[in-house]
Amino acid sequence: MRTPAGKECQYYYADFHRGRDVQTCRLIERNRESPPWTPGLCHTCPVPDILMANACPHLVLDAQVGKRLFGLVQRVEVTGWCSEYFLDVEHPAVGCGHCHEHRGGPSILDIAQQDPNE
Prior knowledge:
By secondary structure, this protein is an alpha+beta fold. It is 15% helix and 26% strand.
């Protein structure tokens, strides 16, 4: 579904049919420790970009609303986890680096760690 920021996100849900006024982020809603979600958070949310960059079926995302800059500005903080290798994913947009090793070529992590002088 298209978010208020204009990006496609599988976790955003809105229902305005016949007078309803429902907007929610199902990813943040799953996290009970997170402060409440507001539609304005979609403008800076990294989740749609992560989903476009990494379509790995083993990537499990978790998000919460975090505060930055003296508690005034709220941002969505995203963490990732690989359900295949049971690893925390440091960069969810890139992935864990193990799921697609069977393809035979170097992974994105291998390319990123190469010395440019070689």
